[in-house]
Amino acid sequence: MAHSPPAVPPGAPEQGCPIRVEHDRRRRQFTVRLNGCHDRAVLLYEYVGKRIVDLQHTEVPDAYRGRGIAKHLAKAALDFVVEEDLRAHVTCWYIQKFVKENPLPQYLERLQP
């Protein structure tokens, strides 16, 4: 009996594959690798105080927009703020929108005015 090849070859665009967010604390960024490792979506942050981070910028390449990737980045960053008992200043317009659409108490209580 012959074995058929996998339906989606390794390194193919993640149609139907789960989105995996990676956190690089040294570079202060969250990333999602797209189409292998050539493209990536990123959320950048900086510490602006001892326990305060500024969620500064989210960027998803044009070809990957509209797939919910930025939502995963925003959720990962806000979960990080909660888990590390930090406060967050939100410069990024997309994360501001995400919080408005997902007004969870654990996020709202961490936001700086």
Record the SSE blueprint.
Blueprint: E1 21-24, E2 29-34, E3 39-49, E4 52-59, H1 69-83, E5 87-90, H2 93-101, H3 105-108
Parallel strand pairs: 4-5
Antiparallel strand pairs: 1-2, 2-3, 3-4
Plain-language structure description:
By secondary structure, the protein is of the alpha+beta class. It is 25% helix and 29% strand. It is built from three helices and five strands. A hairpin with a 4-residue loop joins strand 1 and strand 2. It is globular and about 35 Å long.
Count of DSSP strands: 5
Order of helices and strands: EEEEHEHH
Classify the beta-strand content into a percent band: 25-35%
**Count of separate DSSP helical elements:** 3
> Structural class, from helix and strand content?
alpha+beta
Mean of pLDDT = 87
Query: Low-confidence runs (pLDDT<50, min 5 residues)?
Result: 1-14
Separation, N- and C-terminal Cα atoms: 64 Å
Helix content: 10-25%
The general outline is globular
Side-by-side strand order of the widest sheet: 1-2-3-4-5
Largest sheet: 5 strands, mixed
Radius of gyration: 16 Å
